[in-house]
Amino acid sequence: GDAFEEFQKQVSQWEKDGILKRFPDSSVCEIRDSFRPNIKNNKQRQKELNDGERYKPENIQIVPINSPKKKQSQVMYYATDGMGSIPQAIKSDSSFKLNQDVWISPSNGVKYTGSSDSSSPRWKVQSSGKQWGQFDRLIIAHNGKCADRIMSRTPAKSFHSLLRTNFAPYVPEHGGNRMTLNSIYSLTFALRKNGKESVLGGKIPGNMYSCFIKNEPNLRFLSCNTRKYSSSSSNDDNVEVWTVLSSAKFGKKYKGPQENLPNELVKDVTGQMLQSLERSIGLEAGSLWNVKDAHVGGGIVLDYKLQLWGAAVPLNTWSSSSTEGGFLYDAENGVGACGDWLLHPSIGGAWESGRRLANWIVEDLEDRKKKGEGSSVGLPPDGKFVRSVAASQAGIASFK
Questions:
Q1: Per-residue pLDDT tens for 131-165?
Q2: What are the residue ranges spanned by the domains of the chain?
Q3: Do you know which InterPro entries this protein is assigned to (predicted)?
Q4: Which class in CATH covers the domain with range 24-75+184-309?
Q5: For residue range 375-394, what is the model confidence (pLDDT) as tens digits?
Q6: Three-state SS at 377
Q7: How far is Cα 82 from Cα 245, in angstroms, rounded to an integer?
Q8: Helix (H) or strand (E) holding 391
């Protein structure tokens, strides 16, 4: 819509620059069950699917959703060199200095030095004993436990109250009282090809790159890295690489310490996700993962990497009645926040939130010069959390 007009322009520019590509027609699909009409057990089967009870798909369908034949078909994009190419493109268009791979401790990495004079530094940033400098504005562009802890010892109490986080696979219809993030497992695995394709590739039509999984309670999304990046020089003709994402309910049930997942948990979750994928697409049990002799190197699965996204997708967004929305700004303490949880649970929401905050800070500096004070935006009690129906349904982001 109009709220994302600037982002739409940016996407068009990224496409022109080769940063993004459009998914070819009919290359994005849904894997789902065909619940035929007038079948008595349809409602019971849908309940089993929704509740995550043991569920065996029947009448499996793989249906394209970005087909030009569909009236409401969406134009979809993917990054040509992976998701990292988007922040790299943003950096290349800017003159600011970027320090990457810097861990700012949530306990002592940020300190408020204090000053109401906009010309004086207010925030000191350090990591591992190294001083990164003093700054008159601090921006929190992530969320979760670390963002909460970073701001917990500062005077920006009202601002900090919105950074407190719940972790759950759902939120109540009224939106809840805190930011709520789900947790998702991401499993990337390499399969041995048997001729032109792997056992999994043989089940998914060759023109399809990515699939939303609608018939298996443990999973939400499947994508073939090899097909998306078929021109990559690193591709091995005998190997096919896939990535599958879990449902939030599954992620919550098997959640572990994401920085150091225990080996037994990794093996258990990997096995369950591959077995769930077998059921979803109608493969024989053991086609991808055999419980008895599961190991890497000797079977169809040549290698795999499991990651837990502990603070994955916001299931609600903060909505304030401020004239400006989509970000937070505490003018008194010189700190702001941007992110998808403040506007829309998507890449577009995160980008647009950051753009709006940056523009507001520029205006705030001008106001201070003219009026001697700035204006805050979006702080409580002015606002409430609103449930994102689309994000809750898709589980991995909002696509609407």
A1: 999 998 999 998 999 999 999 999 999 999 999 99
A2: 24-75+184-309, 139-180+313-394
A3: FAD/NAD-bd_sf
A4: alpha beta
A5: 899 999 989 999 998 888 88
A6: strand
A7: 16
A8: helix 389-394
